[in-house]
Structure formats: C-alpha cells, structure tokens
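Lines hold sequence, tokenised fold; shown next:
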Amino acid sequence: GCVASAIDYSPDMVALARARNRAACGEGRLEVLEADAGALPFPDGTFTSAASTNAFFFFARPDAVLREAHRVLAPGGRLVIFTVAPNPPGWMAPPPIARRMSFYSDHELRAMLERAGFAGAHVEAADHRGYSLLATAHRP
C-alpha cells in the first residue's frame, strides 16, 4: 500500500483534516501535518507525486513552493496543480478573500514550473468556462 502525506498552514484545517480522515490516519495510511508549503518537512526525493488543489492562489511565495515540490519529488515524480484562473467570477473568489489571492495565467504558471526545474509543463483549462486551470509537470 501507499502512505499519503498532507500539509496545511492552518492548525484548524489540520485538525479538521485529521478528524475527517481519522481511520486513514489511525491506520497509518495518511499523515496530516501543519507545515509551510515553501519549507516542506520532508527529505529530498520522498514522493512519487504531489498535488495542490485550490491552494496555489494563496501562496505568498509560489516560486519557493514550486522549488520545494521539485525538491521532495523523486526523479520522474509528477506534480499536479488545480487552481483558479485569472478573473474568476465573484462566487469563486469573493472580494474579501480575492484580495489575498494571486491568479496566474497558463503562460505564467508554465514559466513558474520551468523556473523551478520541472519538465513537460502543461497547463490547460480545467472546466468548460475557463474558470480553473490544471497544471502538470514532472521532475526530470
């Protein structure tokens, strides 16, 4: 079997994730840690895959986050990012929250992945309206 690791910067979200996944955590199939995505608490080359879902737009230092993802992935490891595209409708990013969010175009996201050392970066619309982006890349 595999063991999944999850991180969140918020202690409240870590507690909620642990509570919602009590069985998996108790069985050793999942660990949920409080951590900064820009300074991951894992050794180099730990993972075969990594994902960020609806979080990338909150990272104050996205380049550092991508460098860390690259560091903790084993060669050939794959990164997947699901994020909100620029100019989302208000219901996706209400104004009080949107002020703390950063949105990147497909070109910007691809360039960020390449700067972090990823190869095969591909970014596409993740829904038919273009509100979300799905980015994939791998560590060479």
